[in-house]
Predict the structure.
Amino acid sequence: MSRIEFFFSLLLVVCLYSAIKGGQPERRAVMILIIATAMTIIAASPWDIRFANPEVGIFLVDLAILAAFLVLAVYAERYWTLWICAMQVIQVLSHLPIIFIPELLPQAYFIIVAIWAYPMLMVLALGTYRHQQRLRQFGADKSWSDFSVSQK
C-alpha cells in the first residue's frame, strides 16, 4: 500500500467513524477535513514541480483550514479541537522553511507539510471515542459552549 493509499484509507475510516459516532463538533471537523483534502488536491502544483517551490495554493488552503478549526474550537465544548488547531498552526508554519531555505529538497518540504495530517486524524478519532465514552457514562455530551449560537 502506498503512502497516498494509506492516507486516504485512514481518512475514510476516521471520517466515517466520526461522522457516524461523533457529535456535531466531530461531524463538522469531518466536513472541514474532507473539504480541506479536496481543496489541497486542487491547489497543488503540477506533479513534476510539486513542492519544488513554495506551495502558495496549499498554504492558502491551510490558512483557511486553520480559520475553520479556530471557529470550531471557539464554539465547541471539546478539548480535542484545541489540539487540532495547534497542529494546524504548525502545518501553516511548515510552509516557511522553503521561503527561507530555497534549496530545501522537495521531499523534505512535502514531509514537513504533510506529516501533521496523520496526528490530526488520530486526534479526531480519539475525540470521537471520548464523546462516545461521555455518552455512555453520563447519557449526554454537550456539543457547544454556552455562548455559542450553534446550540443544536
